[in-house]
Write a structure and sequence with these properties.
single chain, 335 residues, alpha+beta, 3-stranded antiparallel sheet, 7 helices
Length: 335
Amino acid sequence: MSFTAIVFISCQNEETLVIQDTTQNLTAVSPLTSLISRVSQNPTSKDNILDNSSCFNVQLPVIVIVNGTHITVSNQNDYHTVQNALDAFSNDDDIVNFVYPITIQYQNFSTQLITNVDQLDDVIDNCDEDDGFDEIDCIHINYPIKIDIYNANSQIAKTITVQNDTDLYNFLEDIESNVFISINYPISITNLNGQNVVITNNSDFEDSIEDSIKDCDTNSGTGGNPNFTSILTDGTWHVSYYFDNIDETSNYNGYNFTFNSNGSVAAVKGTNNIGGTWSTFLNSGQDILLLKFDDSKLDELEDDWKITEYTTTNVRLKNESSSSGETDYLYFTKN
């Protein structure tokens, strides 16, 4: 998948776009696109003790009622006060009630006034299914940044300047399947230690974001976390994304994978049952999942996969070739 475009067009006083480095192209479903969205989104998981939803956050200050006690929540430190109130009794219903009205803010930074509990319940019911991968707020992008855009259908190219997280998140959410984008490097980010880091390509950007996840998420693939084994051996899984130069996810439609605690794995599709083995090991502090199968139909899944991130329902893996410089991606989602 590649494109080279030379198009004259006016966009925010910028003209003439030439896109030639196809290795830097991104689409709506590229893993890096998802990671950048999580960096730029409005943080919505920090207050889950209040609203039990990562679809939005509740703007502070608010007053909540827990076990008959009114608590004023003015900042994130007060979340601990709410948690302590919930933990004070073992025979209560562990419900946080708001004193209305409250204002909620979605991942795209839009807000909504909520006047009663029924309205809040409707919002929660209408939220998309949560995949468990929350915002990544351990790094921040330094703006402005420029992004080249190419529409494969219209063959129109342009360059935009993005000034803030709100604009970047909403831009990425609106990318259509026929659109390719390319970030104008170099850009810089600020890491958890307040240091500015210069990013020169997609690989650098992806590595920097994944490194930051290790700083703020215990469910990243580092340090031999025993939770991974218990999660992987619970239930059955399917391939929700496989990328090897192109998206080849459809090659594995219909396969259900069962990872057994004895190190065996079974991939079942209809009457076809393919056996294999799985194991994990540490390589330079990074958790690796090694997969082997007994049938050539699953040869492409055989590799030593870096465990980049996981939840109870999703596992994300990648393999970087030192010889070709290419990166393959494999995602499992629980059935």
